[in-house]
Write a structure and sequence with these properties.
- The structure is a single chain.
- The protein has 10 helices and no strands.
- α2 runs antiparallel to α10 and α7 runs antiparallel to α8.
- The protein has 195 residues and is mainly α.
Length: 195
């Protein structure tokens, strides 16, 4: 998106962006999303893509809908368009309102759920592995870790593959450690964007 043209790139810079899914880009343009939100979504999307790719390389038989993970991570905070104060401060009103914003713009309830579940993973009843990975990317993109969330993801992986939870946790820990290790750089990128 055009918002990235405000950045100058050195060849040695860590550039944590990947192209957002086309549908997500169109939505953000239609909604006139603020640059800070677009950059945040791109950073979390990049982290989600790294997590997905690493998990797929480690466990090729693990069934995860890649498109759902990438789309979910690219739109998870879209509700902040209605709650701009949550771009720079705490709040979860965007989680309540995000799915409605997406559905008003033609996104199915099944796909718009990520705008809610990324923040409600502790209380959700029917929580798919894809939702877990979007929530995980939203935690570790900036270097934060959540033992409870990572344990939940490891259990889902173990159940899906028929392996021990500790084995899944060890593999997941390597993946999340790698992604989280670049959290400060991602935060610096986000701080470059205007609110």
């Amino acid at each position: 998106m055009d918002v990235f043209t405000e950045f100058t790139f050195d060849l040695d810079d860590f550039v944590p962006f990947r192209d957002l899914p086309e549908e997500a880009q169109r939505l953000l343009e239609t909604l006139n999303a603020p640059p800070r939100l677009v950059v945040h979504l791109a950073l979390v999307h990049g982290a989600a893509a790294e997590i997905f790719d690493a998990l797929h390389a480690r466990w090729p038989d693990l069934t995860i809908d890649r498109d759902d993970v990438l789309f979910g991570s690219a739109i998870h905070d879209v509700g902040k368009i209605l709650h701009l104060n949550e771009l720079t401060g705490p709040g979860n009103k965007h989680e309540q309102d995000g799915p409605g914003v997406l559905q008003q713009h033609g996104v199915s309830p099944e796909r718009s759920r990520f705008a809610r579940t990324h923040g409600t993973w502790e209380t959700e009843q029917d929580f798919a592995l894809e939702d877990c990975l979007v929530a995980l990317a939203d935690h570790c993109w900036k270097g934060c870790r959540s033992e409870a969330l990572e344990t939940m993801v490891a259990r889902r992986i173990a159940e899906s593959l028929g392996i021990e939870t500790w084995e899944a946790f060890m593999g997941l820990d390597e993946v999340v450690s790698e992604v989280a290790s670049r959290g400060e750089e991602r935060l610096a990128w986000q701080c470059r964007a205007s609110v």
